[in-house]
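Exercise 7.
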Amino acid sequence: MSERPAGTRWKTLDSDLNRISIVEYASAQISRPLVAPGIGLAFIAVASLLAAVFFGHAPVNFVVVAAAGFGAYMALNIGANDVANNMGPAVGANALSMTAALVIAAVFESAGALLAGGDVVTTISQGIVAPSAMRSQDVFIWAMMAALISSALWVNLATWIGAPVSTTHAVVGGVVGAGAAAAGIAAVNWAMIGTIAASWVISPVLGGGIAAALLAFINARIIYREDKVAAARVWVPVLVGVMAGTFATYMLLKGLSRLVTTGPGLAAGVGIGFGIVIWLLTIPLIRRRSQGLENRESALRGLFGLPLVISAALLSFAHGANDVANAVGPLAAIVHAVGSGGHGEGMVLIPNWVMVIGAFGISFGLFLFGPRLINMVGNEITKLNPIRAFCVALSAAFTVIVASWLGLPVSSTHIAIGGVFGVGFFREWLMERRLRHMGHGPPKPITIAREERARRRLVRRSHFMTILAAWVITVPAAALISAAIFLGLRTVLG
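Solution. The predicted structure, written as tokens, is:
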């Protein structure tokens, strides 16, 4: 049997190596989408192991181990969904790259959760269901477990369809569904649910209105002026001072409430003083940075970049300080019930290890799954630049303060997204107004006019309807899922 020529053998070897390379490339492409879920599952396993270390001394405490896993799952979903509201506008305005946004958000979310996060939570999510209505410790634990699982599942689904939702509302819906299934509909505090439903309207309308008003003010005082650079030297320091004062008040009332106890009056006084100081310090800085700038809007946008980045970081810190407690509230309630032998009366302390799960879970979820929703909020709803994104960020902080003073129920998620929509719809209205004033010639047929108006839309209606629908059904959907899970747990576990 004759041997093949050497050249033929090398050609065959090269062909085989090419086939192997193609197979390896295909395997890498198939496995790449599985990397993030795999890391997420590893984090959930570590969280459960952490709970086993602290509560591994009795068989009943394996319930806590399971709850810790679901709590970690919930924290991952918060990082994937909720944090986009703070960082999306800055990324969409190109003030931050995606990588920088992820790093800043992870650091400040974790710092807010660990340094200033609420260390207590009212049992059963702030009085939504009366603890006395729970017949036993087991019923209470199953109800909280169902609330935790259902809220995590719903936020995961919302993230998958590209809808930023309120994770607090998801937790509330989970508690309502499990509480109603466990103790009856009469045990639910429907007045509290009514205030939460009101926030679906109040939050986005306030956030959008204030963001649009801020953009109108900047247009009138800076953008539409003959000498834009001179106007910017006057008003940009004022706006930065207002931002500094607003965020100082916001942080004292919401972000640092665990470290510093202040009333609204004192917080406002400190905020005003801090804002004046920053205004005075900013005047020479803006004067130097504006030297040599062209007299056009695009040249002025860079003056808003740094304030926008700082505001996004502070919003992330406040979010970590406030929302992590809501996220791990059901887990903390289960730990408290198992440790005390009761079923949820009074205030529940959140152990440090539970806060660690919440803080690191948010960061992992942000890095693994957050970029998609950050990109959607920043780029796909409406076109943002540093000026418009600055209006959204300042509106978010200002709206929370105003709503707190007025006693109105608001959602930080709805406020931020409402601000983005408010800026977009204001620009649409402004463009329509200009075109009406500039219109010449005979009126066009209605169908042609409608087609032109649709082409000129600056806000994507598909995202608007998807997000609005997700907001409306978050509480009832989480409630139904939670009730089904509770009934399943009760049937299986007796």
